[in-house]
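Before relying on records like the one below, remember that each one covers exactly one chain. Contacts with other chains, cofactors or solvent are not represented anywhere in the record.
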Amino acid sequence: MLTKFIPGFDVKSTLLKTLLGQALFGPTITSVFFGAALISTEGFADGLKQWPAKIKQDLLKTLSTGLWPLVDLACYGVVQPFFGVSWIPLSYNIASFFWTIFLSLQASHSVK
């Protein structure tokens, strides 16, 4: 989707796509994932109550692993120029499989 708004695969556009993904998409999706995990384990009301504390406790630690920026850079800097835009979704889906495992482990930490 970002390739429609920021075309090209030069260094500037690749870094801009990565920055936007990390600033907007990453924190939003990770927070929603944490909320869904809490609701599924604690119930709706208790999960929503614990959600802000979970975000405060684990969001920065999770995002600072640096894994997803590497995925963004690989997809926009390597996959797109060598294989084309149509291969980006497959690349992200493969990375998402492993990222979801990692997020599940992070989400399983109890809220203090």
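The mean pLDDT is 91.
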